[in-house]
Design goal:
With about 700 residues, the protein is an alpha/beta fold.
């Protein structure tokens, strides 16, 4: 017997614990993607309700009301309006929370007026006693014409009640909370007569919002019921006032708050964490601790992964039958994958810390704190969210700039976000820092490598702010903006939420980068293992003659290494590298590094995988060697180490500033609707990176 599938839309204001409820209901049974044609994230999960029933739950973007002001909020409205949408819900679950129930109920009453079966979830019930809050659930259910689940997603209380209500959604009342025509009786009477078969509140949303309504010709509606923008705003304000009057009357009976019992810890913490001096010091200490931990905690698992892939490549080379396929596996695929998997610990720790800061409520304090600084550079506090998100990945960070209504601020934020050190730069930073910075400590407890990593993050952030300041002066766009940020309650981060977030983000990074690295590793292996002319094919003879002519001792291992080095130099990739070497030599790079730099314009993290592949192709020793060992022992023609301090710093600065991500450029084009801005980004950032790296190498060499 096929299981009944109930489609559920999970909706709520930001910071109500909606994602926590989603995680409790679905666990790891989640899929993350984008809505068709737009770059708004879509999360869908599956929840088992009974032996014969399960629910497909779509976690919609957070929204304060159905009066949309962003693309994210439009997604919510369009789903609720269009019955032909494949995700159109059988039942809507609106998540609210006990401390802000009045504000949360505005969205609930609007959704209820769409005459959909609607369940109200009141989250964070574990905080009711602490805040002196009492709720009369039967009274609220009666007045709101719905069923209510009082839950604590943190303590997994009430989740079974939500499942029970979803399972029995057909028994829920579809009656609206308010009569929409009370906003303007004459206007809505005409609207009802013109479209007798359409739901009145849906018609009102079509008139006031830029949304699609598949069952209705918008032109017909606009031609007959067009109002000025000012009149529509006035009616929307009147609607909001009437809804809050209705909510106030209900809460007078259904909610009691004894402020004398409420704890004042939040206010005390806010005074410290948002202080004009201590707030910044605390934020700096938090950042410092994060970057110290990334290096310290990840060292053991990174060394294990590094040596494991070295052993695996050596084992494959020794035990598999000799031939092209074995060479592809041992010199192309294994080193290429190992070159990115080694950084999973550091990337996972980065996402872990970001998740903890967001879950605890501290990130909102950082946004508020940084608004004072951002405004001096042509940005607002809202810009700090994409900038901080950019430490994970520039792509969702740039998409996150959509909630900045001011076009100038949004454009500047989009243009400078790629300067922020993203997780794709982390593998490059980690391998180079490990090569040129000793494992010593400053003052006995500060890791020099962790300190260097933090300086690079601050350098990227500083360049983003400086670029924003310049753009603010150059861009002639007049506009005003207002900054509003919600301060959620402080919470101890939920282990389940943090774990799922870290797992999903790390998996997304690894598989997203893995596709590129796998393809490039195979291409690079082929280009490094084959050559166009007879010099490549006759490498054995040519090298032996040279060694005999130079009267060198013919040690078999030395002969093999020289033959492999000669083949690599005369391969397709060697010829390509040699052709660009004159351009990159002033930066301290040889042709091998040049190949890695050029290939990493597809994605920065490819740099390490490329070098791993190139060095594996050039080294046929059966002994276990790691990418770090190969880079450490790489020599110039004069016998000096290739990866010395000057070259290392030059590479670090180049990767700190260069635009090396095709996906980011594509997203910038989509967000700005023009190739002009991504072209400017590519030329300016790469040119600036080249000049900076050139100066650094010439000064330090």
């Amino acid at each position: 017997m096929a299981a009944e599938i109930i489609k559920v839309a999970l909706i709520g204001n930001p910071n109500t614990g909606k994602t926590s409820v989603f995680n409790q209901l679905t666990g790891l049974h989640q899929q993350v993607g984008n809505y068709p044609g737009i770059t708004v994230e879509k999360k869908i999960g599956v929840c088992k309700l009974s032996e014969h029933s399960k629910a497909t739950i779509i976690d919609l973007p957070g929204t304060y009301s159905l009066n949309a002001s962003s693309m994210d909020e439009n997604v919510v409205i369009e789903l609720l309006m269009n019955k032909k949408d494949e995700n159109y819900p059988d039942v809507v679950v609106v998540v609210s929370e006990v401390e802000n129930l009045k504000r949360n109920l505005l969205l609930f009453t609007q959704i209820k007026d769409l005459e959909l079966p609607t369940i109200l979830v009141i989250n964070m019930s574990d905080r009711m006693k602490l805040k002196g809050i009492e709720l009369d659930i039967p009274s609220l259910e009666r007045d709101l014409k719905t069923s209510i689940a009082l839950v604590s997603s943190r303590k997994n209380i009430g989740i079974e009640k939500i499942k029970e209500l979803i399972l029995n959604y057909e028994s829920l009342s579809k009656k609206p909370c308010l009569n929409a025509s009370s906003i303007d009786v004459e206007y809505f009477d005409k609207l009802r007569k013109a479209f007798p078969n359409q739901l009145l509140y849906k018609l009102w949303l079509v008139i006031t919002q830029d949304v699609n309504f598949m069952n209705l010709e918008r032109k017909e509606l606009e031609s007959s019921f067009t109002k000025s923008h000012a009149d529509l705003r006035r009616l929307q304000q009147k609607e909001t006032i009437k809804r809050y009057q209705f909510i106030n009357d209900i809460l007078k009976k259904g909610q009691k708050i004894d402020s004398s019992k409420a704890s004042d810890i939040r206010a005390k913490l806010d005074r410290v964490l948002t202080h004009k001096i201590f707030g910044y010091l605390i934020f700096f200490v938090v950042l410092f601790a994060i970057f110290q931990s990334i290096f310290e905690w990840s060292k053991i698992p990174m060394d294990f992964i590094d040596s494991s892939f070295g052993n695996l490549a050596a084992y494959a080379k020794t035990n598999l039958p000799k031939g092209e396929f074995t060479n592809l596996i041992s010199e192309g695929i294994i080193p290429g994958i190992g070159g990115i998997l080694i950084f999973i610990p550091q990337i996972a720790f980065l996402f872990l810390f970001i998740s903890v800061l967001e879950e605890s409520g501290y990130m909102s304090r950082v946004v508020f704190l940084m608004d004072k600084i951002m405004r001096r550079f042509g940005l607002s506090g809202k810009s700090i969210v994409p900038l901080i998100s950019g430490t994970a990945c520039a792509i969702p960070a740039i998409m996150g700039a959509r909630n900045i209504e001011n076009w100038k601020e949004r454009l500047i934020t989009i243009l400078v976000t790629p300067f922020i050190t993203c997780s794709a730069r982390l593998p490059v930073y980690a391998i180079l820092i490990a090569l040129i910075i000793p494992e010593g400590r400053l003052f006995g407890f500060l890791s020099l490598q962790g300190l260097t990593l933090m300086i690079l993050y601050l350098l990227g952030f500083g360049m983003a702010i400086f670029s924003a300041f310049i753009l603010n002066k150059i861009l002639n766009i007049n506009s005003k903006s207002y900054f509003v940020v919600e301060m959620p309650s402080y919470k101890i981060p939920m282990f389940k939420n943090v774990s799922i977030n870290v797992l999903e983000k790390t998996k997304s990074f690894v598989f997203g980068a893995g596709k590129i690295i796998m393809a490039l590793s195979i291409v690079l292996w082929f280009l490094g293992s084959h050559g166009p002319d007879k010099d490549f094919g006759n490498a054995d003879t040519i090298v032996l003659e040279q060694m005999q002519h130079q009267s060198e001792k013919l040690d078999p291992a030395e002969v093999e290494n020289k033959i492999n080095a000669y083949k690599l130099e005369h391969s397709y990739i060697g010829i390509l590298g040699k052709s660009i070497e004159p351009v990159i030599r002033p930066l301290g790079y040889d042709w091998k590094i040049g190949i890695a730099v050029v290939s990493s314009f597809a994605a920065r993290e490819v740099f390490v995988g490329t070098l791993a592949t190139i060095y594996s192709v050039g080294n046929h020793s059966d002994e276990e060697t790691t990418i770090k060992d190969e880079m450490k022992h790489e020599k110039r023609a004069d016998g000096t180490p290739l990866f010395n301090m000057a070259t290392g710093v030059s590479l670090l600065l180049f990767y700190a500033f260069a635009m090396q991500c095709i996906s980011t450029l594509a997203v910038v084009k989509k967000e700005t609707l023009s190739w002009k801005w991504p072209a400017i980004q590519l030329v300016f950032m790469s040119g600036f990176a080249y000049i900076t790296a050139l100066i650094a190498y010439q000064v330090l060499k």
